[in-house]
């Protein structure tokens, strides 16, 4: 056994794995093996894995739900920690009097590994508003904060209701940071630059009637079913939408900022390389029909990017995160 992984082996036994195939941990079902792998089931296990990984000088990659990643066919030369921590707790309530009635803000602390759908359902059942439109968003709370994941009808970003979080820095320091730290923007949080890892997130939610919350959540689900391909292997939207300024400059049809619309109008709906295909239903989704390789997806991405650039003069940026060796 290599000496630098002794501590990890000692702490986690057979659950600490070498050469673990990663495709099964992603919604794309694509990707080669991780050099080292551990699936952390609790917050304590996650913190220990990060800390021992850092001590062992292993590069670390955190996998949440694996719903927004494209892992290379040759895998990842790092210690991949899958975060399956599950804790949710109400931390406090703050009331403010406004025109005679009290409005209550409720602070909910959620482990970063909690599936977004579990957190959203918990909030609705507790009569707490701010996150209900995200019902149906796959992946974990950590991934959703990293990406500042969003929904359009009604509009909402996960970052909008973040109050504070506990993070670990690349040097191993555990810090509590407030919302400002994240610099949330479209598809962006500062985590993408800092390399910090989120342990837990505290959200500030407002009290609201449960039936109204379910109405919004169910309408999100219906719209998702209408517009996105269902029951397929994918990593959601491939490209970010373009800015309003870029749409104006490029003079896209109806000044559309939608990446899916641009890929569709470049004639690529249904286009296929190997087993990777641009969805017939939503041109910003690439689907793994069965045995697609990461290399097929990359080729299709580049083809779509080139076609959109040639037709509209717009450079599409990827939303999915490429990781590992291709
Ligand atoms: C069918 C489908 C529909 C989708 N619909 C939407 C949608 O409506 N809106 C939207 O915005 N996205 C959507 N997505 C994309 C995806 O679900 C989101 O981006 C999601 O929030 C990613 O979370 P995850 O846990 O799966 O992240 P992963 O894919 O596991 O990881 C994504 C990135 O986050 C980082 N990360 C994960 N956890 C942590 C942590 N604890 N600390 C630091 N970094 C971390 C990873 O290292 C990686 O870089 C969709 C995807 C699919 C497959």
- Total separate domains: 3
Category from helices, strands and their pairing: alpha+beta
Shape: globular
**Second CATH tier, the architecture of the largest domain:** 2-Layer Sandwich
How would you characterize the largest beta sheet? 6 strands, antiparallel
What's the gyration radius in Å? 21 Å
Helix content: 25-40%
CATH class of the largest domain, anyone?
Alpha Beta
Q: What is the ordering of alpha helices and beta strands?
A: HEEHEEEEEHEHEEEEHEHEHHEEEHE
Q: How many H/I helical runs?
A: 9
Number of E-state strands: 18
Any chance you could write out the topology, listing elements then pairs?
Elements: H1 6-12, E1 17-21, E2 33-40, H2 43-55, E3 60-63, E4 69-71, E5 76-83, E6 88-98, E7 101-111, H3 116-125, E8 128-129, H4 141-147, E9 150-152, E10 155-157, E11 162-168, E12 174-178, H5 191-194, E13 197-207, H6 210-227, E14 233-237, H7 244-250, H8 259-265, E15 272-273, E16 276-278, E17 285-288, H9 294-312, E18 321-323
Parallel strand pairs: 2-5, 3-5, 4-18
Antiparallel strand pairs: 1-2, 6-7, 7-13, 8-13, 9-10, 11-12, 11-13, 14-17, 15-16, 16-17
Bound molecules: flavin-adenine dinucleotide.
Structure description:
The protein is of the alpha+beta class. The chain has three domains: 3-83, Uridine Diphospho-n-acetylenolpyruvylglucosamine Reductase, domain 2, CATH 3.30.43; 88-226, Uridine Diphospho-n-acetylenolpyruvylglucosamine Reductase, domain 3, CATH 3.30.465.10; 229-323, Alpha-Beta Complex (Uridine Diphospho-n-acetylenolpyruvylglucosamine Reductase, domain 1), CATH 3.90.78. The chain is 28% helix and 30% strand. It has nine helices and 18 strands. The chain has helices spanning 6-12, 43-55, 116-125, 141-147, 191-194, 210-227, 244-250, 259-265, 294-312; strands at 17-21, 33-40, 60-63, 69-71, 76-83, 88-98, 101-111, 128-129, 150-152, 155-157, 162-168, 174-178, 197-207, 233-237, 272-273, 276-278, 285-288, 321-323. Strands 6, 7, 8, 11, 12 and 13 form a six-stranded antiparallel β-sheet that branches. Strands 1-2-5-3 form a four-stranded mixed β-sheet, with helices on one face. The relative contact order is 0.13. The model has no long low-confidence stretch (mean pLDDT 96). The structure holds flavin-adenine dinucleotide. Flavin-adenine dinucleotide (FAD) binds next to strand 3, helix 4, strand 9, strand 13 and strand 14.
């Amino acid at each position: 056994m290599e000496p630098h992984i002794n501590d990890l082996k000692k702490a986690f036994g057979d659950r600490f794995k070498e050469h673990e195939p990663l495709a099964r941990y992603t919604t794309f079902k694509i990707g080669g093996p991780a050099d080292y792998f551990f699936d952390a089931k609790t917050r304590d296990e996650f913190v220990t894995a990060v800390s021992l990984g850092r001590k062992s000088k292993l590069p670390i990659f955190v996998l949440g739900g694996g719903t927004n990643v494209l892992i290379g066919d040759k895998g990842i030369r790092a210690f991949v920690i899958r975060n399956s921590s599950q804790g949710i707790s109400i931390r406090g309530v703050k009331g403010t009097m406004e025109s005679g009635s009290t409005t209550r803000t409720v602070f909910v602390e959620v482990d970063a590994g909690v599936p977004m759908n579990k957190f959203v359902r918990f909030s609705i059942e507790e009569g707490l508003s701010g996150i209900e439109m995200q019902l149906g968003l796959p992946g974990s709370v950590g991934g959703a904060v990293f990406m500042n994941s969003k929904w359009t009808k009604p509009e909402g970003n996960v970052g909008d209701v973040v109050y504070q979080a506990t993070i670990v820095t690349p040097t191993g320091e555990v810090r509590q940071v407030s919302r400002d730290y994240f610099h949330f923007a479209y598809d962006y949080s500062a985590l993408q630059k800092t390399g910090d890892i989120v342990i837990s997130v505290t959200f500030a939610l407002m009290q609201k009637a449960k039936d109204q919350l379910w109405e919004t959540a169910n309408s999100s689900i219906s719209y998702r079913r209408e517009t996105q391909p269902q029951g397929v292997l994918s990593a959601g939207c491939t490209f970010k939408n373009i800015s309003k300024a870029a749409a104006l400059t490029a003079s896209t049809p109806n000044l559309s900022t939608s990446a899916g619309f641009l890929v569709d109008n470049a004639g690529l709906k249904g286009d296929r390389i190997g087993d990777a295909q641009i969805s017939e239903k939503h041109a910003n989704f690439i689907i793994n029909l069965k045995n697609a390789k990461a290399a097929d997806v990359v080729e299709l991405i580049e083809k779509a990017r080139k076609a959109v650039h040639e037709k509209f003069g717009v450079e599409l940026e990827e939303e999915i995160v490429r990781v590992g060796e291709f």
